[in-house]
TrEMBL record:
One of its GO terms (molecular function) is beta-fructofuranosidase activity. Keywords: Glycosidase, Hydrolase. Residues 32-326 form the Glycosyl hydrolase family 32 N-terminal domain. The lineage of its organism: Eukaryota, Fungi, Dikarya, Ascomycota, Pezizomycotina. Pfam families: Glyco_hydro_32N. Residues 1-22 are annotated as: Disordered. This is beta-fructofuranosidase. GO terms for biological process: carbohydrate metabolic process. It is an enzyme of class 3 (hydrolase). Its EC number is 3.2.1.26.
Length: 525
């Protein structure tokens, strides 16, 4: 196998905010705000790895920023797995938390993974000598705990600690992703609670903080409160339904944690925006800044990998009903606008009208050189009397494409979905037509949000194969597979980056703009 074939779908850029290098994937983020500086640690895979176990022998890397646009990367990893094969972190330094201790110095708590010990997972602590974590003492040492709560959990799944200081109780809380030792196999996932006054000795709560009987294991949990008095529990589900990072709401840090009733089902995004974690926004405790990742996709294998590119930093706040809303972090779009060019108005008019009564119609702007550049698309919906409309993405000569589809719902609301380029067929039809398509784990609806207001417009960011959509306080993230040759023999191989479509009706779009060639952040290494 050639060296080039070892690299998954090419990342959108060389080593930068998104990942340490093109050969290494970024994964679970661990953000911490110290004074006015964002410290974003994230897991990084070993170079040129694809699958478990080598890909999960991860290290911790860090970057810092004061404005979420200008970033500085550390020259070396903060935490590395131990070279001692008997050490608890010999096969990976996995997700955890960064927290300031009682003495004001930064601490890292992380998950150690060791295959030779039946894949045992333990919580390790690495200390630094200053507030900003200039250097950490690693390998970390295993934390000590008391209480009988551990006996109620499985032996293996015990990872992803998240730590915060509970001001009301005057002690630190640690929540951990785990599984109950007994119960239905597929739904034992739970979140354990431990407490400490000094970060040294931890006491297990007698019962898990959260055990909803509906998931295998809740990865990368976090818990925080906002000035509205509500508590928010977030975690990531790696299986359907509602895979990806989800949230629950409570009036107390002890729960009960309820599923939001706003049509989101508690989803901030979808399956491909994963392990998202947050820290407070500098100067505004009513908002949180989130960091998640979208996985690499190995096109020749048709497989999604653990780890990929960090997504755009996102600002999350609660609306008047306490439900969370997602937007791009302030400054991201501004920087892109300042460093990009607009597609000429003769190519992309600010007003776009589409009509196709009783049929479906598509239209494609001639983007020219912008076809291969990063794009920022925005539009408002002026009027819609159609069954559905939206944006076609990566369109081949047969007009097979992924669809960002908007379907009118109740009142002025819309259901928003990202759809696969063509769903696979039943075996009979696939045999008859000779169309044996891939049967991906995603789709045909990759992501679906219900009851979304489009009053603030739609923003779409395209970075190479990565797409990020923001509308009505929801987001959609995905990595498009590389283009393949069209099915029909007489079709050429040209692929168009995007287009419009309308299904059975009329739609008028306003304030349409497409900008190309800009940047979303700057990075010093």
């Amino acid at each position: 196998m050639s060296s080039t074939s070892l690299v998954p779908t090419p990342p959108p850029e060389s080593g930068s905010y998104s990942r340490v290098s093109p050969a290494q994937a970024a994964a679970d983020a661990i953000p911490l705000l110290v004074d006015d500086t964002y410290h974003v640690f994230h897991l990084t895979t070993p170079p040129f790895t694809r699958h478990h176990p080598p890909r999960l022998r991860s290290t911790w890397w860090r970057m810092r920023s004061k404005n979420l646009v200008d970033w500085t990367r550390d020259a070396e990893p903060s935490i590395k797995p131990s070279d001692d094969k008997t050490a608890p972190d010999a096969d990976g330094a996995w997700t955890g938390a960064a927290v300031l201790g009682p003495d004001g110095t930064m601490n890292i708590f992380y998950t150690g993974y060791n295959l030779s010990d039946n894949g045992k997972q333990v919580i390790l602590r690495a200390k630094s000598s200053d507030r900003h974590g200039t250097k950490f003492q690693y390998p970390g040492y295993e934390i000590t705990f008391n209480g009988d709560g551990r006996s109620k959990l499985e032996h293996i799944d015990f990872r992803d600690p998240y730590i915060f200081y509970n001001e009301t109780e005057k002690q630190y809380w640690m929540i951990i992703a785990s599984r109950l030792a007994e119960g239905p196999h597929w739904s034992r996932g739970c979140i354990a609670l431990l407490r400490s006054t000094d970060l040294d000795t931890w006491t297990f709560a007698s019962e898990p903080l959260y055990s909803p009987n509906d998931m295998f294991c809740p990865e990368c949990p976090e818990l925080f409160s906002l000035p509205n008095g509500k508590w928010y529990l977030l975690y990531s589900r790696f299986h359907a339904p509602n895979s990806g990072t989800v949230y629950r709401i409570a009036d107390s840090p002890y729960g009960p944690f309820r599923i939001p009733r706003d049509g989101s089902h508690g989803r901030l995004d979808g399956r491909r925006w994963y392990a998202a974690k947050s820290c407070p926004k500098a100067g505004d405790p009513s908002k949180r800044i989130y960091f998640g990742w979208t996985g690499d996709y190995v096109d020749e294998e048709g497989k999604w990998l653990w780890g990929g590119d960090l997504g755009t930093p996102r600002e999350v706040c609660a609306d008047e009903n306490g439900y969370l809303r997602v937007e791009p972090a302030a400054g991201i779009e501004q920087l892109f606008n300042e460093t990009s060019q607009a597609v000429p108005s003769k190519v992309v008019r600010s007003e776009v009208s589409l009509s196709a009564v009783g049929s479906t119609k598509a239209a494609f702007p001639d983007l020219g050189a912008a076809e291969t550049e990063d794009l920022l698309l925005h539009f408002d919906v002026a009027k819609c009397d159609a069954h559905a409309f939206g944006v076609l993405l990566q369109v081949d000569a047969d007009e097979k494409a992924h669809r960002l589809q908007f379907t009118p719902s109740v009142g002025d609301r819309y259901n928003v979905a990202l759809l696969t380029n063509f769903p696979p067929l039943d075996d009979f039809w696939a045999d008859q037509y000779g169309l044996h398509l891939l049967r991906p784990v995603d789709g045909p609806e990759i992501v679906r949000h219900e009851g979304v207001s489009l009053s603030g417009g739609v923003t779409l960011i395209l970075r190479s194969q990565l797409i990020e959509v923001f509308c009505g306080g929801r987001s959609i993230s995905f990595r498009l597979p590389l283009p393949v040759a069209p099915v029909t023999k007489d079709a050429n191989s040209e692929t168009r980056r995007l287009g419009w479509f309308v299904e059975d009706g009329d739609v008028d779009l306003s304030n349409v703009s497409i900008r190309h060639g800009g940047i979303l952040w700057r990075t010093d290494s």
